[in-house]
Design goal:
The chain has one domain: TIM Barrel. It contains nine helices and eight strands. The strands form two sheets. Strands 1, 2, 3, 6 and 7 form a five-stranded parallel beta sheet that branches. It has a three-stranded parallel beta sheet with strand order 4-5-8, with helices on one face. The protein is globular and about 45 Å long. The two termini are 17 Å apart.
């Protein structure tokens, strides 16, 4: 038991070192024009979220005019995140989506028109999921495998249809409610006062107040020993994601 624990701690320390090196290299690469390489770590360097205190920041509704500034902050802090992208927005801001991809961020499906999926027909749900996935893939070259249902509205039918489209349904375990008309200080306090290891945090890259709160969020999480991971990285430790399955959080260390 003690030997196994020591091995896992050594593995975590090794990942920390390689992650810092690869993240620093990624920041340098992003300053070079025309750099085509991805900044994501190889699968064998994925973090062990049963050992590390992982947190997955997620951003819905983008890309928007605020997304590049959010990416700059994430890059500065060597942090990755998960962006749930609206299909037409990906087509309007392809360079931003490609920057997310180069940074090693995960990119998920957030539909075409942002409807309540539980309130529309099955044919409409299929359109919303598949068209957005097509739009995203036309930019990134990869069809997304994650769905964040708008407004967090899902039911058994939504899950089944998502599964047919090859999408896992990703919810959240911590919501500071940045979508409300609240101050940036309220957003970062709600997040930092309640965050736990394994949390999937719901944020939005459509609000200036979220951008203003983000530096304190990133600094606070880092100083508390959290490791920034994408949703796929967080869930890899417990078997990964599967189409039609529902996820709220990762391992609780």
């Amino acid at each position: 038991m003690r030997v196994g624990r020591l091995y896992r701690l050594k593995r975590a320390a090794s990942w920390h070192s390689s992650w810092l090196i690869s993240s620093t290299m990624a920041a340098v690469l992003l300053t070079l024009p025309g750099t085509p390489t991805a900044a994501s770590a190889p699968a064998d360097h994925a973090p062990d979220c049963f050992v590390l205190r992982c947190v997955a920041l997620t951003f819905d509704d983008g890309p928007t005019q605020y997304t590049p500034s959010i990416l700059r902050l994430l890059e500065k802090h060597h942090a990755t995140a998960t962006f749930f992208v609206i299909g037409p927005h990906a087509l309007q801001h392809p360079t931003t989506v490609l920057r997310e991809q180069r940074d090693g961020d995960a990119i998920g499906d957030h539909t075409v028109t942002h409807p309540h999926l539980t309130a529309v027909s099955s044919a409409r749900v299929r359109f919303e999921l598949d068209r957005a996935a097509h739009d995203i893939a036309s930019v990134t070259g990869h069809r997304p495998t994650l769905l964040r249902p708008p407004f967090g509205a899902y039911d058994s039918r939504t899950r089944a249809l998502a599964g047919q489209s090859g999408l896992a349904v990703v919810m959240w375990s911590l919501d500071p409610q940045d979508w409300r008309h609240i101050s940036p200080g309220t957003i970062d306090r709600r997040l930092l006062n309640h965050v736990r290891a394994g949390d999937i945090v719901s944020l939005h890259d459509r609000y200036a107040r979220t951008l203003t709160a983000l530096p304190r969020i990133l600094t606070g999480l880092a100083s508390s020993g959290f490791a920034f991971v994408t949703v796929p990285q967080m869930l890899a430790a417990s078997g990964g994601t599967h189409p039609g399955m529902l996820y709220h959080h990762g391992p609780r260390t």
